[in-house]
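Researcher: Sequence recovery benchmark, item below. Answer with residues only.
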């Protein structure tokens, strides 16, 4: 594969689509119904794949089955609202011939629903990495390394957009330039973890992205 100069790798929830509040409420309710004993559980698991969450926090097979059932119901009725500024930035990437990928801990069925309810959105991404493509959940860098590889980009030339601590750490471990979105966690908690922090994609451009580099 011909090597490209740079690429943009995006987490999904809390970065491209405004769903993190919904997931926080859902997982807080799961912790109430099936106590995990983990303080701040709904935030601790952000960025983790469903198999990782189930195996690490729900030892009962019956509880795991119920959580999966409730999550399926939740996601089937969820509205996937794309954040303001996202499409404009994706269009700017397209104008500059910079390929993009989604690297998410979400499953394939959810992605099918997302793209079905947002026609044309899938076309902005050269590849989509889901939980079925990786063996290790974030903060392991496997997903971002795979995304960069599929796009033909060296990881250190890629830009990762994340909102969760685990996701930011995954991007850093991959060796990429990491831009954090302060949509889920406070800006001040992300500043030392990422190479740059932005509040929104509104007004953000490819030139702004390229200006970011690792220390």
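Model:
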């Amino acid at each position: 594969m011909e090597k490209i100069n740079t690429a943009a790798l995006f987490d999904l929830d809390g970065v491209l689509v405004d769903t993190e509040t919904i997931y926080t409420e859902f997982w807080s309710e799961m912790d109430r119904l099936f106590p995990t004993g983990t303080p701040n559980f709904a935030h601790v698991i952000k960025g983790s794949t469903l198999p990782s969450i189930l195996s690490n926090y729900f030892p009962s097979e019956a509880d795991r089955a119920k959580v999966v059932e409730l999550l399926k119901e939740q996601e089937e009725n969820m509205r996937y609202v794309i954040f303001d500024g996202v499409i404009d930035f994706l269009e700017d990437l397209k104008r500059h011939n910079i390929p993009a990928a989604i690297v998410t801990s979400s499953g394939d069925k959810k992605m099918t629903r997302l793209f079905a309810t947002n026609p044309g959105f899938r076309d902005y991404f050269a590849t989509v990495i889901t939980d079925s493509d990786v063996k290790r959940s974030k903060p392991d860098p496997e997903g971002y390394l795979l995304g960069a590889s599929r796009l033909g980009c060296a990881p250190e030339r890629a830009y990762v957009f994340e909102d969760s601590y685990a996701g930011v750490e995954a991007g850093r471990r991959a060796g990429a330039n990491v831009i954090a979105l302060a949509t889920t966690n406070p800006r001040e908690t992300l500043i030392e973890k990422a190479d740059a922090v932005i509040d929104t994609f509104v007004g953000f451009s490819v030139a702004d992205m390229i200006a970011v580099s690792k220390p």
